[in-house]
Amino acid sequence: MDTAITWLISFFLVVTTAFAAITSVITNSTDQAQAVATSNQRLIDDNESSFKLVSLTEGVAQTRLDLVLTNDGRRTLDDFDDWVVTVRYDQSSGGETYVFPVFATALADNPWTAHSFWIDYNVSTAEAIDPGMLNVHEELEIRMQLNPIIESAIYLVVTLTSPTGITESITLQAA
Question: pTM of this prediction?
Fold first, then answer.
């Protein structure tokens, strides 16, 4: 009888341990599957986000740049605080100049502002839905005032990167 009780206790310990191990494996597999699904969703979101720089013009005394970009993706773009803008140009007086404007609500030397939102920039049709957000097929005019002043007849490159990692560049020769 003692052998039967010992065997019964051992059997239940083995079965309980097996169930605990199986449950652990299933839980870990579920967590891994969830992590992969989250990663895939991020990739899909990033691929659906897209913009294109369509024009760059210089303004008064060659210090102001107006950059127009179009949202040609499938997602609304916003969170302009997290966007990265880089401007590179060569100065005959000081060599290569890099400016890293940060987002601001007012125009000053070296920050950039989301100046205007458009349905169509070329025909001056202002946006009507979700002010302050770059919806699909809308256009955004970014304005920045650079210091040091851009000399004439030099090339400058403006690069814009969204928080999702989408990057576009445009080149302009200063007049």
Answer: 0.66
